[in-house]
Amino acid sequence: MIAIKNLRKSFGKLTVLKGITLSVRRGEIVSVVGPSGAGKTTLLQIVGTLSRPDSGSVVIDGVDVGRLNDNELSTFRNSRVGFVFQFHNLLPEFTAFENICLPGYIGRRDRAEVEARAGELIEMLGLDLRRDHKPAELSGGEAQRVAIARALINSPAVLLADEPSGNLDSRNRDEIHRLFLSLRERFGQTIIIVTHDDNLAAMADRRITMTDGVII
Ligand SMILES: Nc1ncnc2c1ncn2[C@@H]1O[C@H](COP(=O)(O)OP(=O)(O)OP(=O)(O)O)[C@@H](O)[C@H]1O
Ligand SMILES: [Mg+2]
Q: For residue 206, is pLDDT > 90?
């Protein structure tokens, strides 16, 4: 599902990725761990097409994303990649339901279909009673579950999560961790999770350690 070859990326004189090669199978959950500054977020952003590498390639579900122009990339990202960040990044003026639906509307999908899918996700993530609440009225765990639903609304090929439970207490953390496992069971979702949490890293099928821009 994901084939990363020899990725390199520098910011000025600082080389952050020094030749990263990694393949992830369909339905596999891979965790990426490593010290602060190792290049984990940089890697995830390149895999998610939010940033371009200096060299190397990323192929997602058969598409070499380096060959797409900016317009094609936006469409690809909207439909094929789901992101979950450490802080939920929900839009404060919209309800949970509206936040979940937005990537579907942006992708110009059929409105009824998007809203039906949002309804399913809300039920699956146990958010029924929070559907019409705005982010400020949600707990941290609830907001993060809304962010996960938003990431899944367009049924992306890959789900990328950057410290998704870094900001939660242990009960909510466990819940989010179980959720990732059930997503794989239920949708066969391919997932890369960057985390500092040992429990979450250990739940993955495979744990990858990055240090100083390389996989060790
Ligand atoms: N846009 C940027 N411009 C300049 N330097 C950057 C930029 N983004 C990241 N860096 C630098 O690249 C290095 C790797 O950053 P990155 O965010 O990928 O680390 P990380 O492994 O995710 O760390 P953490 O665990 O703290 O989140 C750091 O030294 C960081 O300061
Ligand atoms: Mg990071």
A: yes
**Residues flanking ion ligand 2, Cβ below 5 Å:** 41
Ligand 2 centre to CA of 42 (Å) is 7
Ranges of each domain in the chain: 2-91+156-215
- Looking at every residue in the chain, the average pLDDT score rounds to 95
**Hey, is 191 helix, strand or coil?**
strand
Cβ–ligand 1 distance for 38 under 6 Å, the answer yes
**CA distance linking residue 86 with residue 21, whole number of Å:** 25
33 lines ligand 1 (CB under 6 A): no
Return the CATH fold of 2-91+156-215: Rossmann fold (3.40.50)
pLDDT tens for each residue of 128-159: 999 999 999 999 999 999 999 999 999 999 99
CB 164 within 8 A of CB 106: no
Q: What is the pLDDT at residue 172?
A: 87
What is the average per-residue pLDDT within 96-106? Answer: 97
